[in-house]
Model the fold of this input.
Amino acid sequence: MERREYRASDVQGRFLVIGATDDERLNRRIHADAEQLNLLCNIADRPEICNFILPAIVRRGDFMMAISTAGKSPAFAKHMRQRLEAQFGPEYGKLLDLMGAIRQKLLAEAHEPEAHKPLFERLIAGNLLELVTVGEADRIDRLLGDVLGPGYHYDQLMTASRQSGE
Done:
């Protein structure tokens, strides 16, 4: 790693620039250089000169939540991320894996995508998340059968989901 003073040419050919120095003038110069080249630029703790933000992220498989305080309190964003991580467990990722597998099966059967919305709403209203949380495969199968008809089985759908994710 080379240690030297910043040069405007350092941002040339880049897609994204992050300035995180303790020198306010240098951070503003980095911002100006990036802006001149129409680059994505984030200056730490200076939201007024950022053209994108770095939110705190809670991720559970394909389920993601972003928390932002618009730069006013990164500490509060971190606090909220930790609270939400405790509240939203891995079952949310499993639910999305199941929903994705159901959607793929419906599409393969030539169902019209706009017809899916009420089906998914009925599954959610039928407490599918809670059933996934406690691992009630038999009750999940009954709910899937009631809403989607025969041929929808939790274990098979989850196996298909894992195979498509490989």
Q: What stands out?
A: The chain has a mean pLDDT of 93.
